[in-house]
C-alpha cells in the first residue's frame, strides 16, 4: 500500500453505553494511527451482564452485503483484520469467506482472531461455533489470542501447567498460526497471580515468553477485546513479541486498576455490590497510558 497509515478492519460487537467489542478496540487503534473500519456483529444498548439488554444482531446476509460493497468499490485492501465476538455459525462462515477473499487479493493482510467463546469454564456462545472457529476461521489467522478456557476448547487439551500450555500453543502453530498468545491463565504461583504466555514462529525458530500479573477480584467486561487490540498495535509497531506482551499487560492492568478505583470511590454505601455501570472500563481516562505505557510487568523467556 502506498500510504504508510495502517488500515484495519475490526469485526466485533458494539454497545451504545459502555465499553466492549469495537467500543473498546477502536479507540486505542485510532490513537495509534490506524485507519479503522468497523463492522458491528451486534449492536446492543449495553453489555449482556446488565439486567436489561436491547438491540440488534447482524446476520449472514448483512455481513455479506457489507463485504460485497467494500469489494465492488475496491476498498477492501486492509493491512489487518481483527475479529472478536460473533454470535452465529452462519455469520462466522461468511466472515471467513470474506477474509479468505481479502487475503487472496491482498496476500500481505494479517488477520488477528480473538476466538471469543467463553471464560472461567463457561461458554457464552452456542457450542456449534467451536468447530467453525477451529476448522474454518483459525486456519486463516496469523495471530490468535485465546484465554485459557478458549485454548482448551479449541485444542482439546486440558491446561494444568506450562507444558500443557505449550502443547496447546504448538497445536495452534500447526494450524499455520504464526503468533499465539494465551491472554490469561490460572497458572500463576498462587491464586492471586495470572499468567499470559506468548509464542511466535520466526525464521530462527520459536520464541516464547510468559508474563505474570496480579489477579484482581472483580468482574470486568471488554478486557479481552482491549488485550487483542493492544497486542495488534504493539506487534505492528515494535515487531517484538516480548515488548508487545509487556506493553499490553502493563497498559491493561493500569486500565482495570483505574476502573476499580473509580468504582470504589463512587459506589453506593447502601449497596453491597458495585453496579455494572461503575465497572465500565475507564478507557478514555487512560488515554496517555494507552498511547505510551510504562512497562511495569516484565516478560520472561521460556526455554
What's the layout of helices and strands?
Blueprint: E1 7-15, H1 22-31, E2 35-44, E3 55-57, H2 60-72, E4 80-83, H3 89-105, E5 110-113, E6 118-119, E7 122-123, H4 129-137, E8 143-144, H5 148-155, H6 162-174, E9 179-182, E10 193-202, E11 205-214, H7 223-238, H8 241-266, H9 287-291, E12 300-301
Parallel strand pairs: 1-2, 1-4, 4-5, 5-8, 8-9
Antiparallel strand pairs: 2-3, 6-7, 9-10, 10-11, 11-12
Can you walk me through this structure?
The chain has 303 residues and is of the alpha/beta class. The chain has one domain (7-301): UDP-N-acetylmuramoyl-L-alanine:D-glutamate ligase (3-Layer(aba) Sandwich). Helix content is 39%, strand content 20%. It has a 10-stranded mixed β-sheet, with helices on both faces. The chain has a two-stranded antiparallel sheet with strand order 6-7. The longest helix is centred in the C-terminal third of the chain and has 26 residues, at 241-266. It is globular.
Amino acid at each position: 500500500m502506498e500510504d504508510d497509515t495502517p488500515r484495519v478492519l475490526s469485526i466485533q460487537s458494539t454497545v451504545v453505553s459502555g465499553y466492549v467489542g469495537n467500543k473498546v478496540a477502536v479507540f486505542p487503534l485510532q490513537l495509534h494511527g490506524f485507519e479503522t473500519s468497523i463492522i458491528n456483529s451486534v449492536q446492543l444498548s449495553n453489555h449482556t451482564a446488565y439486567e436489561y439488554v436491547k438491540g440488534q444482531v447482524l446476520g449472514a446476509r448483512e455481513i455479506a452485503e457489507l463485504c460485497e460493497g467494500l469489494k465492488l468499490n475496491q476498498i477492501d485492501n486492509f493491512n489487518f483484520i481483527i475479529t472478536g465476538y460473533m454470535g452465529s455459525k452462519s455469520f462466522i462462515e461468511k466472515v471467513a469467506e470474506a477474509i479468505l477473499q481479502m487475503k487472496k487479493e491482498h496476500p500481505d493482510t494479517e488477520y488477528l482472531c480473538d476466538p471469543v467463546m467463553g471464560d472461567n469454564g463457561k461458554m457464552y456462545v452456542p457450542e456449534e461455533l467451536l468447530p467453525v472457529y477451529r476448522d474454518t476461521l483459525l486456519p486463516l489467522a496469523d495471530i490468535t489470542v485465546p484465554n485459557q478456557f478458549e485454548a482448551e476448547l479449541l485444542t482439546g487439551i486440558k491446561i494444568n501447567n506450562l507444558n500443557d500450555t505449550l502443547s496447546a500453543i504448538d497445536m495452534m502453530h500447526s494450524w499455520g498460526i504464526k503468533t499465539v498468545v494465551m491472554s490469561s491463565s490460572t497458572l500463576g504461583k498462587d491464586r492471586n497471580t495470572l499468567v499470559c504466555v506468548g509464542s511466535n514462529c520466526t525464521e530462527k525458530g520459536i520464541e516464547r515468553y510468559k508474563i505474570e500479573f496480579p489477579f484482581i477480584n472483580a468482574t470486568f467486561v471488554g478486557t479481552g477485546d482491549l488485550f487483542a487490540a493492544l497486542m495488534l498495535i504493539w506487534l505492528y509497531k515494535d515487531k517484538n513479541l516480548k515488548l508487545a506482551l509487556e506493553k499490553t499487560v502493563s497498559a491493561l492492568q493500569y486500565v482495570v486498576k483505574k476502573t476499580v478505583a473509580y468504582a470504589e470511590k463512587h459506589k453506593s454505601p447502601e449497596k453491597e455490590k458495585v453496579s455494572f455501570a461503575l465497572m465500565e472500563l475507564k478507557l478514555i481516562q487512560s488515554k496517555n497510558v494507552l498511547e505510551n505505557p510504562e512497562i511495569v510487568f516484565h516478560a520472561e523467556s521460556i526455554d
